[in-house]
Amino acid sequence: MDLDIELRLLPPEKRRSLKPGLEFGFGRLFTDHMFYMEYDKGLEWHGACIKPYEAICLDPAAVVFHYSQTIFEGLKAYYGVDGRIRLFRPDQNMARLNHSARRMCMPEVDEAFVLKAIKKLVSIEKDWIPRERGSALYIRPLMMGTEAFLGVKPSDSYIFFIILSPVGAYYREGFNPIKIFVTDKYVRAVPGGVGDVKTGGNYAASLMASEEAKKLGYTQVLWLDALEHRYVEEVGTMNIFFYFEDELVTPKLTGSILPGITRDSVLRMTKDWGLPVKERRISIDEVIEGIKSGRLKECFGTGTAAVISPVGWLAYKGEEYIINNGQTGPLAKRLFDELTGIQYGDRPDPYGWIQFVEP
Ligand code: PMP
User: How close is the Cα of 13 to the center of ligand 1, in Å?
Assistant: First the structure.
């Protein structure tokens, strides 16, 4: 794709900025500009531009409204300790975006071009990157089918955009282990389905289980496999790891869980640290047994939002189990420190995971 990015920027006096002390939480505040391009059958991707953030006008018959032909990604730009702006493994997000596109019968994008667009947009919006450790500028690329047609088939036209949102530190008072509800009533994804795709429908389908879990005082849901309701899959928007006495394990990628980039990074680092690491099936019974016997030392989720999220409590079949006395374990802490150290630039980047955004 040999595309240029047209710049249609707001004059400086019309730009807003990140006010010091502003509480922005997660995903409610958006920057001044967005990247945007369109696809039409026969024309390929065209009209790439960075323009003021604005509403999108679509035909009510647009495919996305009716049949959810849509995919997205999520990554962050970090303001480093040296003042340089870093992206963490953005090439992996681009590869996953195209994996999602193929599965949803959507056109692929030129990964290098979209990465260039992300860097350009982030550099234009660099003043929106919060400086507080733990905070970042969240980057949300999204594609959707826009053809006005009620027949069920892949859309002939698409839009792709990237929006940016400053996000606050996930952990305000240090690491707080979360409480997880193991559901054996609902499932997230079936074999052969779209569980490994970042598509909106997966998240819509998860709402009821997470609302019910929240009412009971749990932060997120731990999903079990759809066939036997027995094997652990993933948690809300995170992959899950169990640190048993003799091994660190995480569910294998069998197509029904999202291949997390944080998950992959944790696997790579812990193998290099000499831990016995395995990707395999893990039954919920093994986890509960491990808690009862003391064989399970730690449990934590991994994902772009929280990086590492220790799990202190698991509720399953009416019982609540406590893991590591509800405390953050040393492995979760070490992984958190190492990963955030790489992301904010105060630790070396031995794997070449960081890409810089030039101002
Ligand atoms: N599982 C799901 C369902 C997710 O939405 C996410 C967040 N992208 C993850 C796992 C973690 O993936 P990553 O480490 O790439 O953020």
Answer: 37
